[in-house]
Amino acid sequence: MIKALLVREAKLINRKKSELMNPLFFFLLVTSLFPFGVSPEPELLAQIAPGVIWVCALLAVMLSLDVLYREDFDDGSLVQMIVSGASPVSIVMAKAITNWLFTALPLIVMSPLIGILLNLDNDAIPAMMLSLLLGTPTMCFIAAIGMSLTVGLRRGGVLLSLIVLPLYIPILIFGAMAVNAAAMGHDYTGQLLYLASGLVLTVSLAPWAAGAALKISISE
Prior knowledge:
Blueprint: H1 2-15, H2 17-37, H3 42-63, H4 70-74, H5 77-83, H6 88-117, H7 125-150, H8 157-183, H9 189-219
Helix pairs in contact: 1-6, 2-3, 2-6, 3-6, 3-7, 3-8, 6-7, 6-9, 7-8, 7-9, 8-9
């Protein structure tokens, strides 16, 4: 069931490539503006690079949240999938995985370029990619809970942001700390372990919570 839903989501996303590129363009544009808006000094850019990259990645992922369920809900496809026997948990997992593959993964691939642009230490680039690799899936699954709660609401984007942003803060903190530690030559295993434990916890619980919330939202 999940495989069929993943194929369906991939085909739908392939039809709207322009929307797919928006988070990536946002990430590249905003991070590249920091040297102009803050300072072109290499030392200063190296200090702020971990926080800048993580904040911009977080905001870029949030750009894709509203389309996670919205179109399927508006045209009735979401209701039809559940009525036809598709598990809400499977739907949530398929959408969250697809969202990560087509939104967050390109950001991770592009992050070394941004790190070089912001004069990030070469030793910190692997830590940055690893932290994003562990942190962004957690954000996508948390976002699935928020979207499941707000999918039936008109203009629920603001409420969605209020729900997910506080839950993103620990991910942001540990992700930026891992990159900072690597840049200073310190061990960053502890920060990565926190991110990994958060990922395991989120993947284990979030699909069930989001599935229950989705079922309630659609039945109202």
